[in-house]
Amino acid sequence: MAFTDRRLQLHQILEELLGSENVYFQPPESRRLTYPCVVYSRENGDVQFADNRAYTYEMRYQITYIDEDPDSDFHIRLISRFPKCTYDRHYTADNLNHEVFNLYY
What we know:
By secondary structure, this protein is of the alpha+beta class.
């Protein structure tokens, strides 16, 4: 499966988990976001080597869930759906809660 197809599949799953279409892939700063939302971007991937060549490669995405509600259960739904998802950090900016995850997909 091509990277584009795989990313679009991930996008659809994130919309299902969120329960809305407020999912944005690498949005420009000029884009006005609607909350709650998910913003995600590509990061470094994971390469496994065998016989001196790349054997497998998994793309890593940074997923940020943004919401006014500090007690949302989105993180539980996300981590339950993806076995290679880890919680990274929480921070607050502009009175919005940001939950950051790393996902290999």
